[in-house]
Automatic annotation (TrEMBL):
GO terms for molecular function: amino acid:sodium symporter activity; metal ion binding. Pfam families: SNF (PF00209). This is Transporter. One of its GO terms (biological process) is amino acid import across plasma membrane. It comes from Schizaphis graminum (Green bug aphid). Residues 36-56 are annotated as: Disordered. Its main location: membrane. The gene is ine_2. GO terms for cellular component: plasma membrane. Disulfide bonds join 252-261. It is found in: Membrane.
Length: 535
């Protein structure tokens, strides 16, 4: 650094009984040529190790005069600018300027002469950045699809489609996806990939005043994980119930069946208000719906045990680290597509499937486009299926390389998500058409109420297929793995975000990663117990 590099205010500053300001500034800087190959050229090198003149000089030096001093180095590719000193003490600490060398993997190493304070700053930087990445683009896309084609499409989409009038729901759904879902997905991918942090730290880094936005997304993810635990417990309950010679939802000879239960092969008169055994198994056996829905019944201990098993699996999956998340993605994210294809083909072959497809694709109720509830459902389904506003996308993309092409990821994820949603819609209404013909009703009359539509329809299709026991076990095991994949991602986001956003509190109160995961899993299990009571 030459004298000419100093600001005029600093050169004009003179203090009696002390060296000139320019000489003091030059003497305070010791350029170490070992720290980077392209350090700042200086006309002369000086060392000044005595801090006592600076102490007497500090009162006369203004912050404004020091703020114009810039120190840094370059290796020919990058320019590293050190913190601008605002006091003589900081100027003395920069007497041996340090540089950091970036490795190919995104990590940093410091020169051997780094001071303790700078080393601590570097350690803090490392604690907030990613030390591992997705192995390839396919692994990242499968991770995102594992959440979107999980419960978001297989369970929520048929429910919203049925509630919003059938095929007319596709119009607002795809319009919202194009003009809202895709841009927001691109935005969250960019935020995570650029900041290399979870949602709390990422939003805080971009705009500190909006840190609560990242925090709210994590809180939302936590409550989503609570009721996802319940849905996963349902799939596990169905899986164990299918381990019989004949699944209990195939016939009406069970103790919980009512006189309204009827199947085509049953030698009885079809009741006017007939119900399928699959519907009665869901409502009367698993949920045990009470006569008064306003009272809180007893805990369904079978479901509580299933939910406890889910919590244990989630804990031992994430208790050590989150690095192994991508190892099972190739199975859990691709198997649902294969199973969905089998179910779709089989549903299209059912007797009466054309009735449901006609209702879904051609009998559109255009007046529903003016209903705001339909558009609200379309927005909610888009955000939940892609994972927007839950912190999932930000957390996943934070493990991408900095130069990853997120436009390709955005288009790929959105396209596959849209196609799978349409396929689920075809399967749903083809099955409903078969049920409508079987019971002599219209499609609107045979529609099951509530979010249990997917369990009722899946078991209905499987009961009409050969080897229904094995196929039922395979289906619900697939759904169990698929839902677990979503739960892994949600809990991983919560853990990562808390560690990134509140590192000191985690180290002080929770001590280790394992205890943090245990607290989250236990809280999710306890809050889910009221959701598995008799309703």
């Amino acid at each position: 650094m030459s004298t000419g590099a100093l600001s005029p205010s600093l050169r004009s500053l003179g203090v009696p009984g002390s060296p000139s300001a320019a000489a003091m500034a030059i003497g305070s800087v010791n350029h170490n040529s070992n720290c980077g190959s392209g350090g700042m050229n200086a006309s002369s090198h000086h060392q000044h190790r005595d801090a006592s003149p600076l102490r007497s000089w500090s009162d006369a030096v203004s912050v404004r005069s020091l703020a114009s001093i810039g120190m840094g180095s370059t290796d020919g590719r990058k320019l590293t600018i050190a913190k601008v000193p605002t006091s003589p003490a900081e100027l003395l600490n920069l007497a041996s300027p340090q540089t950091f060398i970036e490795k190919d993997d995104g990590d940093f190493t410091e020169c051997s002469s780094c001071s303790r304070s700078l080393a601590e700053s570097l350690s803090d930087f490392r604690s907030r950045t990613r030390t591992h990445y997705w192995r390839n683009k396919l692994q990242f896309i499968l991770a995102c699809l594992g959440c979107s084609v999980g419960l978001g499409n297989m369970w929520r989409f048929p429910y919203h489609c049925h509630k919003s009038g059938g095929g007319i729901f596709l119009i607002p759904y795809f319009l919202v996806m194009i003009f809202c879902g895709i841009p927001l997905l691109y935005l969250e991918l960019a935020i995570g990939q650029f900041t290399k942090r979870g949602p709390i730290s990422a939003i805080s880094k971009l705009c500190p005043i909006l840190k609560g936005v990242g925090l709210s997304s994590v809180v939302t993810s936590f409550f989503v994980s609570v009721y996802y635990n319940v849905i996963i417990a349902y799939t596990l309950y169905y899986f164990f119930s299918a381990i019989q010679n004949q699944p209990p939802w195939v016939h009406c000879n069970n103790r919980w069946n009512t006189d309204q239960c009827w199947t085509p092969g049953r030698n009885t008169t079809r009741p006017l208000d007939g119900r399928s055994p699959t519907e009665e198994f869901y409502n009367l056996k698993m949920l045990q719906i009470a006569k008064d829905p306003n009272t809180l019944g007893n805990v369904r201990w079978e479901l509580a045990v299933c939910m406890f098993v889910v919590s244990i699996v989630v804990y031992f999956k994430l208790w050590k680290s989150t690095e192994s998340s991508g190892r099972v993605l190739h199975l859990t994210a691709t198997l649902p597509f294969a199973m969905l294809a089998v179910l779709l083909v089989r549903s299209l072959m059912l007797d009466g499937a054309e009735i449901g497809l006609e209702y879904f694709l051609f009998k559109l109720r255009w007046e529903l486009l003016l209903d705001s509830k339909v558009w609200v459902s379309a927005v909610g389904q888009n955000l939940s299926s892609i994972g927007i506003a839950f912190g999932l996308v930000i957390s996943f993309s934070s493990y991408n390389r900095y130069n990853n092409n997120i436009m390709v990821d955005t288009v790929t994820i959105s396209l596959i998500n849209g196609v799978s949603s349409f396929a689920v819609g075809l399967f749903t209404f083809a099955t409903l058409g078969s049920m409508a013909k079987e019971y002599g009703k219209s499609v609107e009359e045979v529609l099951p109420d509530g979010p249990g539509i997917v369990f009722i329809l899946f078991t209905k299709v499987l009961s009409s297929m050969p080897y229904s026991t094995y196929l039922s076990m395979l289906l619900f095991f697939m759904m169990f793995c698929l839902a677990l994949n979503s739960e892994f991602a949600i809990v991983e986001v919560i853990v990562t975000s808390i560690q990134d956003g509140f590192p000191r509190a985690v180290k002080k109160y929770l001590i280790c990663h394992e205890l943090l995961v245990l607290v989250i899993c236990c809280a999710s299990f306890l809050l889910g117990l009221p959701l598995v009571t008799q309703v």
